[in-house]
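Please check this protein record:
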Amino acid sequence: MAEKLAGWDAVCFLMFFSSFFGTIYILTPMLPLMLIRPKWYRAVVDQFIAWWETFPVALLELVYGVRVRLTGDVIRPGERTLIIMNHRSRLDWMFLWACLLRRGHLSKEKIILKTSLKNIPGPGWAMQVGCFLFIKRRWDEDEKIFKRMLNYLTSIRHATQLLLFPEGTDLTEYTRKRSNDYAKEYNLPKYNYVLHPRTTGFVYIVEKLRKAKQLDSIHDITVGYPAGVLQNEMDLFAGRFPKEVHFHIRRHPLRTLPNTTGQLELWCTTRWAEKELQLKEFYQRKRFKDLNLVDGRKSANHLRKEQVKAILWLSILFWGNFVVMMLYLMVTNFFILKMTIIIAVFYIIEGLIFGGVEDMEIKLHNAVWGKLPWK
């Protein structure tokens, strides 16, 4: 029962109260900046969202004792990159925040997610304001979404670090079977630790960003859970947290990538074949082969342990007190209650009219600032 209560506390704070009130009373007042200067708006809002993203990391590491270990290459300051990662659980992206926090790049990350998540009150609204990419897993529609979002981020020269899960879904017994059925049909090897990647979106993003001169590298990240895995939201509710999360990072400069569509597809599938072997060894050894932990001595951009811990404790203090204060004001102050309802209704209505804050942002940008410089 104690574990379930602990998990319930995490869900309440992470996925509802902090994101709900943060979106309404911190992010929403920033929306008028869209009309003044889109690049300023993105910079300010991205910093606020990054500050919230430290809160889940703080709870996982300081409250639930999850240890994060990093090996491999570093993500360089200001680097425009596509991050590709295996999708072991539905919540890999949340654990990746712990990795990116230590690199100082949380504010640049944009995640590619399924569109059903964008209308969840609180976290969904925050992700809309964050200009995340919501896809429908139908390429005829997703291509238009990718084109619109990448055109916009490129036009404002946003140093985006775009997170893509080429597998398209998390690894379960069911998805592993589907992947291996696909492998059998096309005479491909069967995998136990990864799913066969879908390369269409990957190739499109690389070619689009390379053409716009807005891509410096690809960071291939492999995630492993040597002792327990937080598979989905129900595990979060139940308080079943992994003891450790390991990330192994390999940086591939743009100049090393192939130039043709077919070669890019092969490049991606080759990385996944390597991941299968890498993860097989990982689960035998309970660590990645490269034992050189990334730390402050190897990268000036990497935060020291003391700095990380200070940021995490400040995050808990800030967001914990913020949520308590807002709940108190909701109960005692009718004006705050009324404003909360009005702003919540606004997000519902704008979703129906514009399709989301991120689409409203792009439409306003195009209307006010004219045509995009490239297509």
About this structure: The radius of gyration is 21 Å. Residues 295-300 have pLDDT under 50 and may be disordered. The chain has one domain: 2-369. Residues 277 and 375 are 39 Å apart (CA to CA).
